[in-house]
Amino acid sequence: MKLNNLLGKLLGTSKYQFEEVHVESQVIDEIINISKEAYPNEFMALLEGKVKEKILKITGLVFLPVETSQEGAVMQVFMQPLSTNSVGSVHSHPGPSASPSDADLNFFASKGFFHMIIAEPYDRESIRAYDSFGNMADYRII
């Protein structure tokens, strides 16, 4: 047994190991539409999904109370229902950069393991994905 598999079983994290990320097309469309409606403010939500057969499948968005402005967004994550299968987050950036800020990186490290940022012009090509360390991540729209 490989060390990371053993550690995953001991720490209870093996159910979160995945090799691919699939995001449902309707989730992408919702992210785009909400980002356009929220502009010039940021929009923020949690990504809902689960890992099955080494594929993380994003199936929906979870909305919690958020304070937004043109400079950022603060989510009240303590209000997340326990029954939610959140695996990360998504938020918009007003402007052309989908690179994470220091605040984004801190949030990524504390909440989930797959994160998305959408920037102007708020289309499929302006979405970037990251892991919990802020490294770019690949995903496929299904």
Layout of secondary structure:
Elements: H1 3-11, E1 20-23, H2 25-38, E2 44-52, E3 55-62, E4 66-68, E5 73-75, E6 86-93, H3 102-110, E7 114-119, E8 127-131, E9 140-141
Provide an overview of this structure.
The chain is of the alpha/beta class and 142 residues long. It has one domain: Cytidine Deaminase, domain 2. Helices cover 23% and strands 34% of the residues. It contains three helices and nine strands. The chain has helices spanning 3-11, 25-38, 102-110, and strands at 20-23, 44-52, 55-62, 66-68, 73-75, 86-93, 114-119, 127-131, 140-141. The strands form two sheets. The protein has a seven-stranded mixed β-sheet with strand order 8-7-6-2-3-1-9. It has a two-stranded antiparallel ribbon with strand order 4-5. The relative contact order is 0.20. Keywords: Hydrolase, Metal-binding, Metalloprotease, Protease, Zinc.
